[in-house]
Write a structure and sequence with these properties.
With about 325 residues, this protein is mostly beta strands. Helices cover about 5% and strands about 50% of the residues. The chain is built from one helix and 17 strands. Strands 1-2-3-4-5-6-7-10-12-13-14-15-16-17 form a 14-stranded antiparallel beta barrel. The longest helix has 13 residues. The radius of gyration is 21 Å and the shape is globular. The N terminus is likely disordered.
């Protein structure tokens, strides 16, 4: 049984983090782009994350899901940001997401903005906005249809889907927490309700993420982290990960996606500016019988050397 009566001021944020992670375990997966290494391309889902960077930053991630499974998802993301002003209270950037699933291809571009408020000597809260659009294409000729019909004769060509999202993000030197909705528009992808009763509408997605960094020794840091993705009409998708950083260079970790997959991750800080990483998912569902896992690779790049800047908070571990 946990007791807070004897916890110190520095310990309380960690116990709060543990309780919040346990609360997320009550849920368990659903639609939308999915990432194992979400902690390294967070700007895609939460624009307020840009407030954690003290120098211009680029992030590139590619994911191939369920390899050798025909029509399986393939996702690529790119994000870029830069802080504004000497106080670095504002940041601007852009996010690009390209996703292919079966006969559908979606490409999106948003402009991102974040504003940071100092709330203590160590921590700050940021508010972020993203706005842009996505292009949706559906080509039914890619499907092997046993019993076709008129409904498959029409393709969806460059349908414009507006995107406006927002997020909030707290971080200090050890704890970070964020809540976001990447788009508030419930965009209609495909509608055949008048004839066949088929209607595909994208619903609101809510992302809650958090992590806590513990210095186990002078050379080892430990970071438990979690992400919950929620959408109406589907179970909560819950990811729990544990990562270790050695000598400020090598990162090794593992994660579990509730009732879906086990994952392994590895990353290496090639320099103060460049961080390269890989991820592998093993599906814990029957789909693993038809595929050979999922793979991710990411590259993060700081435009300037962080060791030469006077940074108040340098969260290299997220």
């Amino acid at each position: 049984m946990l007791s807070f009566m004897t916890t110190t001021k520095d310990q309380k944020p960690f116990f709060l983090f543990l309780l919040l992670m346990l609360a997320l375990s009550l849920g368990n997966a659903q639609q939308g782009a999915q990432f194992t290494q979400y902690m390294y391309n967070t700007q895609i889902i939460n624009p307020a994350y840009m407030s954690t960077k003290d120098v211009p930053h680029l992030a590139l991630l590619g994911r191939t899901q369920w390899t050798h499974f025909e029509g399986a998802p393939k996702t690529g993301t790119f994000s870029a940001m830069a802080p504004l002003g000497s106080a670095q209270r504002n940041a601007v950037g852009l996010s690009v997401v390209h996703e292919e699933i079966g006969p559908t291809v979606t490409s999106g571009l948003t402009l991102d903005f974040a504003h940071r408020l100092k709330v203590s000597d160590r921590g700050s809260v940021a508010f972020g906005l993203k706005a842009g659009m996505r292009l949706l294409n559906i080509d039914f000729s890619k499907l092997n249809i046993a019993d076709g019909g008129d409904i498959f004769d029409n393709t969806v060509d460059k349908r414009v889907l507006p995107q406006v999202g927002a997020g909030i993000y707290y971080n200090d030197q050890t704890l970070y927490m964020g809540l976001s909705v990447p788009t508030f528009f419930q965009s209609e992808h495909f509608d055949l309700s008048t004839s066949e009763g088929v209607n595909l509408t994208e619903r609101l997605h809510y992302y809650l993420l958090m992590g806590y960094i513990l210095e186990l020794s002078d050379v080892v840091k430990f970071k438990p982290a979690t992400l919950a993705k929620m959408v109406s009409g589907a179970p909560v998708q819950w990811d729990l990960s544990a990562n270790f950083m050695f000598y400020e260079r090598l990162v090794l970790g593992a994660s579990y996606r509730w009732s879906a997959a086990y994952s392994a991750m590895a990353g290496f800080h090639i320099s103060e500016q460049l961080f390269l990483g890989f991820g592998y998912d093993y599906q814990s569902t029957a789909i693993e019988n038809f595929s050979q896992g999922s793979y991710e690779v990411f590259l993060n790049f700081n435009i300037f050397n962080t060791s030469k800047c006077e940074c108040s908070i340098k969260p290299k571990f997220y």
